[in-house]
Amino acid sequence: MFDDKELAIEIEDLSFIYPDGTEALKGVSLKVRQGESLAIIGPNGAGKSTLLLNLNGLLRGNGLIKIFGIKINSSSSNLKNIRKKVGLVFQNPDDQLFCSTVYGDVAFGPTNLGLNREEVERRVKDALFKVEMGGYENSNAFHLSYGQKKRVAIATILSMNPDIVAIDEPSSNLDHNSQIKLAKILNSLLKTKLIVTHDIPYAALLCDRAVILDNGKIVADGLFFDILLKFELLEKHRLGLPPGFSIKKLKEDKKKLL
Length: 258
Description:
By secondary structure, the chain is α/β, with parallel strands linked by helices. The protein has ten helices and ten strands. 38% of the residues lie in helices and 24% in strands. It has a six-stranded mixed beta sheet with strand order 6-7-8-3-9-10, with helices on both faces. The protein has a four-stranded antiparallel beta sheet with strand order 2-1-4-5, covered by helices on one side. The radius of gyration is 18 Å and the shape is globular.
């Protein structure tokens, strides 16, 4: 049971239809506690990214969404407050980085909040430290490796000090070492986290709870390792596990990250 006072996210009967008629979300209801790390897993085209974009008003569907008890509506002041609380990290970091320097990218949000220079500098330094990118302030993000870009993209969100960090496909296009480095960073963040991905083993390193989203609907919700034992459920929703997959090894790998 959920105590409403502990809720970071509350979604009731959320539906979303794109202009071309694609029904991406179909009556989604979901509750996420403060401080929880939740994986939203599902095949490509399941509606995962659409769900994320509805959480801070970048997309607006039909239904109820509350962030820490605040209902999302269309007023500019409401959306501004919601976007301070929900930081979205896109799948492709090039969609999030656009300034001539790393410092400029990470400072962009705090500067637009009207913070003074000293506070902006403090937030940039702190955010880059958390993602292990301190010292890259004067670098051009487009000259960084893909893994470094991903971490700078996360820093652009952390500098806004959100209560919720929502990350779309964090492991995509990363080699193994970069994935592990990023997992350690994400596990160290004391935030409510949503990890949206079709990479099940990676999501299990980051989250204790998972929901399966397929064809715009939530079809399962429970402890991650319990869901991993439901092979028929995973196959039905096109979530096959990699060859040689071992829950025992995954649990061992997860302990090493904590």
